[in-house]
Structures are given as structure tokens and as C-alpha cells.
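Example 285, ligand zinc ion.
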Amino acid sequence: MCGSNAFRVLGLRQNHSQGLKPWKQPGISVSVLQCTKCRLNYSSPMPIPYDIQDHYGTPPENYWVPNYFEINPEYFKYSLNTLQKLKPVQPGMKALDIGAGIGKCMIAMQNAGFDVWGFEPSKPFHERAITRMNIPADRIVCSTVEDASYENNFFDFITFGAVLEHLYYPAANIEKAMKWLRPGGIMHIEVPSSDWLMAKLLNLYYNLRGSDFVSNISPMHTPFHLYEFTLESFEAHAAKHGYEIIFHERFAGNTYAPGPLKKVLTSIMNATGTGMQLTVWLRKK
Ligand SMILES: [Zn+2]
């Protein structure tokens, strides 16, 4: 993201869920690296799925329970409320959802007044967006960022919700999507944070047990995470690619801890900016 190749090795991690004693588990361990300039975390080597459709998590049939297709009016509401403060939605504004899934976010954006488009790399999700969610087939295509194509300066708003960490080339993918955005348009990106307190605590525990394992870049199995990001990753990228960061937030997320401890950990994460998720709002110059 920042363009630097300098790194430090954080440690090793298993190619599967590794629990509290990864050193006792069989599997393939890879090195987790951190960019010394912007603290982007990534693994070396990167996991490569058998098939691109594996990478995008071809869902088990139990995904397709009836309530999965129910529309929750709260879906994407928080983000749309934030967007209203940054750039009020006007009739006729165009929005794009990258990694549209079954189209829930497209429906939420349409209800907020946008004219919407989307694309989704997973065949079963794309198919069900059309057949179960009634997304018009000319508005959602089955595509990766690399293969997708839209007019330059076309969209007022683009969202990359929980997508970028799954992509091999996040910097190039943001650059491509920026071309589709109008000057003054907004891009919303939500990613896992390199600074997550729970990962640091688990790393400390592994270290105290005398091991080199770390817990970063989880999961390293379907649906693979490939990166963890910092605000500095985006600031460095923004400086070279014609956009600015106009707002960011961090969310504590799950602590995987019991009740009272959960409260304490959540307030520490909120106070110190060490939550699980980082959200950045970018404006094209
Ligand atoms: Zn970097």
C-alpha cells in the first residue's frame, strides 16, 4: 500500500485455525510479515486456493436458510448514516457495491435513494442475488475487480465492505475503483486492523509459552484473509493516488472473552484505537 518493500517478521502462523497451542498442531506454517513503514500485515508465501471459487468461499448449503434472504432494514444503515454526514445522498446519485454478495447492501443503498450497481465474484452468491433477491441481472455481474469494467468518473459512492482483505492486490484494486469514482465522490472501505488488541494479547501469550507463533491474518483458510491494514497504509497510498481520507473509525468487534472481561477489553480497544476493524472514508480529489 505504501510502496515500501521493507518488512519485519512478526512470527509464524498455521494455515488453519490454530487455537492456543499451534506448535502442537500439524499443518503448514507461513511467515507473517509487517511493512516497517505502514504496518500493513501479510503472509509470505500467500495462500493460494485450489480454485478462484474456493477463494471466494463457495458457500455450504446451510447458508441458504430462508432467513438469510430476509431484508433487515438496519443492514448497512450505520454506514449510510455516516455517508449522509460526509456527502448527502441526492436523487440520481450512483453507487457501486464491490463484493455485493446476494445484494443486501445494494438493496439498502437503493432504499437510501441511490441508483445502484454491483459485482460479486462468487457464482452462487451472484446467482442468488438475481433469483432470490430480485436484483436486476443488468445491475449485478459475476466478476472480480480485475475483470470488472465501468465508465470512468461514473459513481458518486463506492463501497468495499469486508472485501479488500481478501484481494491479492488491494492497492491496485483501489486505484482501479478510484477511476470509476467521480471527483468529489466517496469510497468506503472496511478492513481488519493490524493494531487489533486481541491479536496482540494472543501473540504475547504465544511468546510467553516460548513459541514464534502469531495470531495475525486470521482466517488463513476459506474465506482467506490476506492482509491487515492501518490508517498509515491508506494515508501513504492516498498521497500518491489522488484521494484523501476524510474520516475513519475503528470498531472493537468480537473479543472472544467472557462477559465482564469483554466489557473491559472493549472499552480499552475503543479508548486506544485497537479494535478489530478499521473503516476509512476516502474522497477522490
Ligand atoms: Zn507499507
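Summary: The pocket of zinc ion is lined by residues 1-2, 4, 35, 37-38, 40, 233 (CB under 6 Å).
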